[in-house]
Amino acid sequence: MCGPSDCTDAERDAAYEVGRLLAARGAVVLCGGYSGVMAAVAEGARSAGGMVVGVLSRADREGAAPGLSAAIATGMGEARNAVLVASADAVIVIGGSWGTLSELALAMRRGDVPVVQLGGWQVLDEHGEPLPGIRRAETPEEAVRLAGG
Amino acid sequence: MCGPSDCTDAERDAAYEVGRLLAARGAVVLCGGYSGVMAAVAEGARSAGGMVVGVLSRADREGAAPGLSAAIATGMGEARNAVLVASADAVIVIGGSWGTLSELALAMRRGDVPVVQLGGWQVLDEHGEPLPGIRRAETPEEAVRLAGG
Amino acid sequence: MCGPSDCTDAERDAAYEVGRLLAARGAVVLCGGYSGVMAAVAEGARSAGGMVVGVLSRADREGAAPGLSAAIATGMGEARNAVLVASADAVIVIGGSWGTLSELALAMRRGDVPVVQLGGWQVLDEHGEPLPGIRRAETPEEAVRLAGG
Amino acid sequence: MCGPSDCTDAERDAAYEVGRLLAARGAVVLCGGYSGVMAAVAEGARSAGGMVVGVLSRADREGAAPGLSAAIATGMGEARNAVLVASADAVIVIGGSWGTLSELALAMRRGDVPVVQLGGWQVLDEHGEPLPGIRRAETPEEAVRLAGG
């Protein structure tokens, strides 16, 4: 689950619900491990008794979300976005930021996992057309369903 | 300098010219080190006697462009995109691909270097507006000038 | 918990017991996630109902130990040794291999976590003296106790 | 070329000479890019007109040695040791530190490049015997010769 620290209340609520639904399906939730969308998905997953692993950019746990079951302090800076995306069976993106877009792009670059977007930014090709391949969801339920394979 | 393996002839020509102009200004050129836009920028820089360092995703040099002065075989897969972008004083993006977009996004995420785009994909925010901050160039000359600080 | 794929039965048994004892204390166990010592510590931790996160070198889960609660497929090759060590509150090393030694060295390089060695290789300084700072344990119980701070 | 920031004058002199000899043979020198042995090898290589690439642990160039032809600011912390070692055709180790030992171990873990040690620490196996495979040199000339394949 990817998304920005700096998010709207609606994005936070959607992330919480996505976390809850993923945990209810027995999925282990991976996220970036800090505030905003990342903390909300962790909280949602924990509310359903799920496991959440935070893949942190820092080499320590400073600023890590409280609801993580485990934290991987990669110490790699934004290169951790690639680690996070490489480790997932599906990628759900909520909201928009440059870091979040890098995760969306790296997930599409992989080419072998479902990539679902709930709101957020949009990418157009050189002709102004939306790029194909991203599954767009309107609700947390639809996002989790589309991520399910 | 960031750009895709799979590119048009026009993108290849632009990359060659960007490499040549950067080397003529005495800049060390960093690139992803493989084919397409990456090989063209290396060739252009070498044509002007410049130094080109390829930051490779693989742990060996298989498939590396011939014109590299040195290759850093990171063995990190797409996480090398973050390393490449973190090491640059300015980022020029030519053409579009998901890997290239991840580099554009990581460069904007840094927030402390000029990011110049010559053609390629476009990113819109949640309201359908172009994101501010990317410098758009029409020619290799303009790209190199805008990257100059 | 660090150790080689290729290990003796005694090392495997010790690793299983270390995993069991760590899980019994409520610790989340991090390991390299493959066979040998890594698989044994995972199995031991799972036998006590514990959580085990495998920090894999590959970008997929091929060859991952069966007992992992979650796998982080870093795709970074041996650079994942640094990620594993950076993420731990204490490092217990069982057995010897070059990969394992790199983890021991990176843990000592950190300087801010207990590093415990149960058997395995030994490092001498330029005068032939053992390097100070590594806590040597004779049994799994002692290893877990020494790791406890 | 791997070695510690904190080194003796003899190690610094040896590193300078190794750098000079490598550059005289036309080799591109890779090093960790900071002070001590790393700065000395860079200075030696530059004195012979050679190219030196510093693979830095930080995400910026703070503290980088002055003699580098190019710097790769990996921002990966000690994981850059793995990147440095993965990118080399041969690894020469001068002096001892935990970071340096991690590089020696990662180079031996690779198994496909010559690893040469000039002074520094020593590794014994579980029976107290020196591990085979490391080429020990007495002089900079011998180190460069042994690294040559």
UniProtKB/TrEMBL annotation, chains A, B, C, D:
SUPFAM superfamilies: MCP/YpsA-like (SSF102405)
Gene3D superfamilies per UniProt: 3.40.50.450
Pfam families assigned to the protein according to its UniProt record, in alphabetical order: LDcluster4
Annotated InterPro entries: CHP00725 (IPR005268), LDcluster4 (IPR041164), LOG_family_nucleotidases (IPR052341)
Protein name: TIGR00725 family protein
